[in-house]
Amino acid sequence: MATGMHSSQGFRLLVMVLLGVTVAACGGGGGGSSGGGGGSVQTPTPVDPDPDTSSPPDLDEWLRQVIVDRGLTGDPATPRQRQQKTPAQDPLIKLGQLLFFSHTLSGDLTASCASCHMPDFGGSDALSLGVGVSPLDASQVGPPRRLNSLNDQDPAADGKPNMHRNSQTVFNASLYDRSLSYDGRVFVLDKEVRAGGKGQSIRTPETGNLFDVSAADGLLEVFSKFPLTNHNEMRAYLFSSLSEEQYREHLVARLRGEVDTDFLLPQGRDNWLALFRAAFQQPDADAVDVITLVNVQRALAAYMGSMIFIESPWKRYIEGNDSALNATAKKGARLFFAPREEGGLDCVACHSGDFFTNEKFYNVGFPQIGRGFMRAEKDDIGRWNSTRVEQDRYAFRVPSLLNVQVTMPYGHAGTFDDLSEVIRYHANPRQALSGFDFSLQQISQFLGMASYDYAPGHSAAVQAASSFALAEALLPNRELTNSEVNALTVFLRTLTDDCVKNHTCRNQWRPEAGEDPDGNMLVVGENPPADPTLPVEPDPDPEDPPVEPGDYPKTVTLNFTAPGLDTFAELASCSEAPSMVAVNSGLSVFVPRHLFSFGLYDLIGRPLHPHGFDAGTWNLDSVVSIEPTMIAGGVSAAYLDDDCWLDLVYAGGDTSGMVFYRNRGGQLGFDAVDLLTDDPGGKFTGSAMIDLNGDYRREMLLGNLQQKKLPIYSSNEDGDYYPVATLSMSRNTYGMSFADANHDGYPEMFLAHWSPGNVLTAPVFWVNNGGAEVEHNDVAAGLSNNDLSQTWNFSPQFADINADGELDLLLGADFGTSVVMKGKGEGTFENITDRTIITDENGMGSALGDYDNDGDLDWFVTSIFDPSGEAEANWGITGNRLYRNNSVQGDLILENVTDIAGVADGNWGWGACFADFNNDGFLDLFHVNGFGAIPESTSSSEFGQGMIEQYKTITQEYFDSLPRLFINQGDGSFTEEAVMWGILLPSEGRGITCLDHDRDGDIDVALLDHSNGLQFFSNQVGHGFDRRFLSVRLVGESPNTEAIGARVQVTANVGGEFGMQTQTRFAMANTNFNGQNPPDMHFGLGSAMSADLTVSWPSGERWACDDIDTNRFLIFDQRSRPASCTAAP
């Protein structure tokens, strides 16, 4: 039970008073909201500074002219129709106050909004970096609040404060019109400026490219729900089976007394109900109707919005009281307002108007400390997270200077305790950074605490960014004299309201202890207890994943029942010769196979198994489910049966479910067949194949969408696939890749997740324990959310990039979070990402291949290229990236060669393949693209249709785009030739697989059109005189049956200007994006009639096979070296 419980007598009196205030406010002759219950605001009598007779008489005249010229009134509130009210004056504000101080709204009952935003500390907490959940004593606020590092579940836990930034003041928060938070991640989309963003479209971190569609109105109401779900602020990594929306509703249900009832006073439910009824003037409303999430938001916003503190000496000076400012303050005001050419500092260029901010964003070069924000590098790139615009990198919103005297520490990371210090630094940040003490012992919160070793490097990167150069031009860029600093400091202190400096006055916004509705109200130093019992919600359904991170099984057993095989079943029927029944024109052309006879389409050209999702899966009303659904869908090529013709695994969504196409052989097409022994439904993003236990049977994994379990299947003696395991997974899974990271022969798994949620309950890295079980191992492997951002992952690529014998990981990820993870041995990795090189803004699909035939793997990442050069929403515009591998002597070195290669313009890119489509000896690139289409049938409501139209508006330039086919020119550059090759069918592509479906020696393409279904393109190059090939299939010793990590090199004279070339392929089981290529390695060989071939097996064994005839499909089994090959050193 909660402790610190107080008598309900005071609470009942409070509710009676609130009801009385409500009646008076409704026009019952009570004189409005100023009557009843201690109505008027208790403001202290202002004390103006003594006049300073040394003030030059012309200084007042100068300032008066500035005030007139700039139209200053000292009152930013009245034009916005805002005014100060106390909780005693309005029952809605009172409700908001009690919610603001209630630990009931935190996951572990250790934090409230007031824990970091206390009126006594200027609406903040007087800490450089706040301490949210997991404090040593939950009743403490401000400097005494310290983290209990033993309870800190953040993967980035470092024993230091768990908040990523300084806690901004909530004073005057309702006066912001364009955005809230340091980086403005909750911001108004409309160009028109309205007070508080009321009645406008507001974008949030959860709405993606859309806007908040809830009933909340204005910035404060919309913003108020986000601290509830931030794990370090209030959620505490709990209730992981719930989405953000579901978790917020859980908190509301807590207030209604429907869940977690043991952690509220028995009368808590009734108390909250009475408060909500009074606040919303619904005296007879049921709890479910009045205690709602949007009403919680409205109440919190009303409380925060009531804290209007603008009655300052400066305001009185503007109103005509010359003695309100002393001479020093007036000198400081002149420095503040005067342009630099007149001896001033022109601070007003950014800190403008009566609110002292233009609400714009600048990178002014402040030091960076703390755990960072969003990225594993622990830097904080500020506004760029929301805009992807380079000038916003490391940029933060210009803060209002009202009440600046009491809102210390200063800066987005709270790096300055003293106002004069921040003034001095801000005037000349480039020079000041060189003298900044990164031991942090000058900051009171960090006395005796270790600093951040990466902080100097991050801070230097801030000032090296082009965005800093833009802002630096607005700064004085000179060292201020002591008298200038003193004058500015004195002036800025005159911007502080008298009430916030007076304990009695500001205490009107703190509730009394007797007003506690449910026993969980913050009473400083008293309640809640230092070590409350955490709420535990029982699993609602045994089929659902566990609720808490600690309840997730560390290992999951793989329940195989089918006997193992001696080799892969399909290999018995494979012929070395190309298919005799495959007919090609020999031209560099792709022919669409969309006729009924091919088995994928009906008589009028429609997919037999269309791709699509139900309205409930799209759930347009929630917004947050739209884009995860929009990017789901994929196709893989695999050997599903016992013949040597490649089959297709297609994730068809709710409309078609999982579809398995069996290859008829030759060029006859495909038949859909039943393959699974159960019906898992259709909510899957894609598929992947791998032999997990070394029995020469491949397992099939299906990426989960909305379902919180990821199934694993394996084949049996009947040719069906039966379930062998289910991984509990709280977040959606997209790309899935496999490789042996610890040299035991069994492949590990990386599962990429793209969606917000609890990273602790959606592990990415799974160790394979001898084929008997898999074990999630993010932390030990160096792949936790502390090491890389797990939130927006798409396309992991495993390979030994630097040829040091250890597996590396290149991870294509969205929102600037792609990373390079260097293998350190024993299945561990280290983040070595160089952000000056890895610059893809929205990493989607990716592929590895040796495009320049230098013997190592290069990395291609699809991204977003904006045709207009200006993003319509929060995406980048510069397109794909090609990173050339320049590693040497074990150093992993990548170079961005995108511009030289000419592969940037891919529209909105997704799945990608490296393949030699024209068999000339050089790898080409094929990738799909498109984004934004939502079926009209998804919703018939006006709101739903509005969502569809909104996406059409902002993504129209990505509709009806053709896939990209970049043909390698052999000189490091590519030309885009999709139309020349007959790719004339637009698609909204997602997944892709590149395969030789007809065994004719060229590479075909199957892709997933999200709005329709599969598209299939048959390559007509064939294997003629100057289009010869080799296909190599490796069979490894168990348990690494697919020889993952093996290298095959083929040397041949491909003819023409390119002559002798050595091509390199690696056996890999990586994703393209929601799909996978088959295990066959294809080499285009031009006119070469023969070639020399080497195989380097993962064991270190090496074979040399000289003078191999071309135009052949070769199978090499590690257990039986053919006579044509010799063991090589």
Structure description:
The chain is of the alpha+beta class and 1129 residues long. The chain contains 26 helices and 42 strands. A 5-stranded antiparallel beta sheet has the order 6-19-18-17-16, with no helix packed on it. A 5-stranded antiparallel beta sheet has the order 37-36-39-40-42, with no helix packed on it. The relative contact order is 0.09.
Main β-sheet, spatial strand arrangement: 6-19-18-17-16
The total count of strands amounts to: 42
What helical percentage do the residues reach?
10-25%
Largest sheet: 5 strands, antiparallel
Oligomer: single chain
Low-confidence stretches: 1-10, 12-39
Gap between N and C termini: 72 Å
Cα radius of gyration in angstroms? 32 Å
Please work out how many helical segments DSSP would assign.
Answer: 26
Strand content: 15-25%
**Roughly what is the average pLDDT, rounded to an integer?**
92
What features would you highlight for this structure?
single chain, 1129 residues, alpha+beta, five-stranded antiparallel beta sheet, 26 helices
